[in-house]
Write a structure and sequence with these properties.
With 235 residues, the chain is an all-alpha fold. The chain has one domain (54-234). It has 13 helices and no strands. The protein is globular and about 60 Å long.
């Protein structure tokens, strides 16, 4: 699909040649790795219009990942599993799996297609033409959908392993656990979050940092320089 992304404006801002490589249009991730910290927010936000610079793709940019980590460490309400599970079906599945009582709210409807399904379908449409051969696009999309489900199953397996390890630790070090809870109560926050809930929040945090939260507005973090480590340390 075409977009309104204007790579020329970015090159002009940095006084770079029109044929500069890596191109902000064709290779935005490599361009961001090299120049992101030279660009102000009102220029960086232009990359949101580039279909090759999705939140998941931007995860490989160190500056982006640092900003997400700094944002997540404050446990903002926007990353609260209860908030996200109202709109994100994959987070709903994780919460429903982790909490014995299940979810009080109904599972939100999943979007008809995610970006990977669209990529598979578009590729097949380009490469294969004809009445029945074109159906390979549907097959590839289904395969990508299965890969997404496998990713979710992997998350669930990881959560189960973490839960088992936690239970074993609690049995062996019950007294130490009590002491940690008392210390947490003294600080005011950590003591009110039990083991399973900590694991749940960690899983959601990891999905956020990896660019996998479907309903989160990543632009508010990725392009905001207030989440740079130096800014936060000095503030």
């Amino acid at each position: 699909m075409s977009s309104s992304f204007d790579g020329a404006a970015i090159l002009k801002y940095l006084a770079l040649d029109a044929d500069y490589d890596p191109s902000p249009t064709e290779n935005p991730i490599e361009f961001l790795k090299r120049h992101m910290l030279q660009l102000p927010p009102h220029i960086l936000v232009l990359f949101s219009q580039n279909p090759k610079a999705t939140p998941r793709a931007r995860t490989s940019v160190p500056a982006v990942k640092n900003r997400r980590c700094n944002y997540a460490v404050g446990e903002p309400r926007a990353l609260d599993p209860d908030v996200l599970s109202k709109t994100d079906p994959e987070v709903w599945d994780i919460v429903n799996e982790e909490r014995p009582q299940g979810q009080a709210i109904q599972r939100p409807a999943a979007p008809e297609r995610d970006e990977d399904v669209e990529d598979e379908r578009a590729w097949a449409d380009r490469e294969f033409q004809g009445s029945h051969i074109g159906k390979i696009g549907e097959l590839l999309a289904e395969l990508e959908g299965e890969r997404a489900r496998e990713r979710l199953r992997t998350i669930r397996r990881q959560a189960a392993v973490a839960r088992q390890r936690r239970e074993e630790t609690e049995e062996e070090f019950d007294e130490s656990s009590d002491e940690e809870e008392e210390e947490g109560d003294a600080t005011g926050v950590a003591g009110h979050i039990n083991g399973p809930e900590r694991d749940l929040r960690r899983l959601v945090r990891e999905r956020f940092i990896s660019g996998l939260l479907k309903e989160f507005n990543y632009d508010t973090v990725d392009w905001d320089e207030k989440w740079d480590p130096d800014d936060r340390d000095s503030g």
